Amino acid sequence: MSLLDHPDVKAFILHWGEMGTQWGVNRSVAQIHALLYLSDRPLPADEIVDALGIARSNVSTGVRELQSYGIVRRVHVEGDRRDHFVAETDLWEMLMRIAAERKRREIDPTIALLGELSERLRDDARAPAHVRERVTRMHEFISTLGGWYEQVRVLPKSTLVTLMKLGGKVARFVSPRAKE
Predict the structure, then answer these.
(1) What DSSP state is assigned to residue 73?
(2) In 3D, which of 62, 73, 47 has the Cα closest to residue 17?
(3) What separation in angstroms does the CA of 48 have from each of 92, 120, 146?
(4) pLDDT tens digits along 143-170
(5) Burial 90-99 (b: 16+ CB within 10 A, else e)
(6) With a threshold of 0.70, does the pTM exceed it?
(7) Which of 9, 16, 119, 126 is most open to solvent, judged by the fewest CB atoms within 10 Å of its CB?
(8) Could you give the CA distance from residue 131 to residue 122 in angstroms, rounded to a whole number?
């Protein structure tokens, strides 16, 4: 029995593809990730093509993108000359790698641009005061968010799990007036 013969496996892969599009990830890329994540063995590209019914070029492109995030890696299988691929299965590790790459691709350039704009606007008397103030506030906010991420990403997984489970209860440690 093939992995994809199970209807819930198909449902997971289809949903992961849909969810990926909501996050700005190509549907095929997300489906490749879902298939590799659920697979109990490394898969070669031709098996991914057959399983998902997508073009070989889309599989190659998708696997490269997933490798750039560090959530899929190429492995060699003894006796087989083809490249095989496996997905990271540690969910925390996967989350941290995706967050790091998204920060590098999206947040860091935004912080840099907002910093430049904020500096230029500070000395530009022609710019409306509200524009200067809003760009500066946005730069401070996103920089703070980036700084928070840098501090949190080095915490041990056990601490991250505890923080997540605490949820809003963590506020009572920060603010004595916070209520549950």
Answers:
(1) E
(2) 62
(3) 25, 50, 36
(4) 999 999 999 889 998 998 888 888 888 8
(5) eeeebebebe
(6) yes
(7) 126
(8) 10
